[in-house]
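Hi W., the 3-methyl-2-oxobutanoic acid complex you wanted:
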Amino acid sequence: MTEQTASAAQSDSRDRVKIFDTTMRDGEQSPGASMTLEEKLQIAQLLDEMGVDIIEAGFPIASIGDFEAVTEIAKTVENAVVCGLSRSGKADIDRAFEALQHAKKKRIHTFIATSDLHMEFKLQMTRDQVLEQIAASVAHARSMVDDVQWSPEDATRSDHAFLVTAVQTAIENGASTINIPDTVGYTVPNESADIIRMLKARVPGIDAVTLSTHCHNDLGMAVANSLAAVAAGARQIECTINGLGERAGNTALEEVVMAMRVRNDVMPFHTGIDATRIMQASRLVSTVTGFPVQYNKAIVGKNAFAHEAGIHQDGMLKHAGTYEIMRPEDVGLTQSTLAMGKHSGRHAFKAKLEDLGIDLGQNALQDAFVRFKALADRKKEVYDDDIVALVDEATATASAERIKLKFLRVICGTEAPQSADIILEIDGKELSYTAQGDGPVDAAFNAVNALVPHEATLELYQVHAVTEGTDAQATVSVRMREAGKIVTAQSSDTDTVVASCRAYVHALNKLLVRRQKTKPAVAV
Ligand code: KIV
Ligand code: ZN
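Structure:
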């Protein structure tokens, strides 16, 4: 290696920011955002393919579901480090290790709170006790894996002198990444940078570890705070797809990645992320959680690349750079154009999916194609967004479901009562029922409830049109809660009642899976 290339490589690694995705851990802590094992495996595969450095797959001691998810993700991820979260107790750390044992590259992430408020009221521990716990937990994790990350929870509200001692203790006991969480989304950009600089100046041995930033968005500053921390020397950003996460969410992966790319002149850092997979990841997480992406959300919102004002459209036609700081295709977005009609064949459909950056397995592809043909028969114009919605539907039903909707007919209109005739296939056996309700959706749900009795409550019922026009598909999201377990499901169809009923049935199927797993409570 010449001196020049050696120094280029050195500057390259100095400016490289690792992306630590916590969509399946902190993201899943968002109320209602629970994901099944199959869904988590799909997300993990996509994150791995798009170049995420570390995937925090869950909190293994929190539930059997989390343990299984971390275990299975650890077995399948090819390139990324797979990480499991644990509190500072030995049982937590052992459980994290057990779940991670098959990972090619594994990391244990252990944490304890360091702010006076948390130590006094939540932990009821003195500073000395917390320091002892840090030493013991990090040393124990390090006795099992080489890659240990430690986080002082509520770091941004912690006393600086104590934070320095706590971080030093973690490093002395073997932590190789120190993550600084803004647990309650309280910090501001200059303070976020100051904490990183302060630690770099005061903690012996800090240069040998990676400093990381983990920001919550309660004041809408998570992305700005993360980027400020990087400017001050952090080299890992913890983030989630679509900014999913506790309360107002976490730093959005797509925003920090694109900010560092588009404004590389003022933020000369780079990541290993293939940005063209961003839209695909955003759609997948939105579908799986049932959390719609707000229309004006940076990078992945429906309107992020839409130009409505005449003066903007005129400028765009003359030179896209007039109003566009990045190209839609940079983040994997193709224009929503007229896609295909009922004469389009399987090859054209497959090519369209490739254009949209969608890669389906053979079975899901066949299922999506059948749905496409049925849709093209009913709907004059099939747009890209329609295709994305029907692929989401095919993905949602890819796993074997015990309850299937076979038939639905409703009677509705100005004259009550509205009613629904329904046939469900339950564990291979067809059962029918007719129910009345306050409107066709209520009637259909009542019929399902009669055939599948349950204690779950409907927490969310939401409908949105995929495209324009009265023949547009409706995407229906349903969220249900049963004995503390929350599931979310979606379905799309040109018939809103059919989409509603399918979404409801998908949710019940997910609850059936969840019922088989007990969930020990964990307080964090
Ligand atoms: O916000 C937080 O403090 C966390 C820690 C567990 C890292 O999520
Ligand atoms: Zn967090």
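Residues 496-515 form the longest helix (20 residues).

W.
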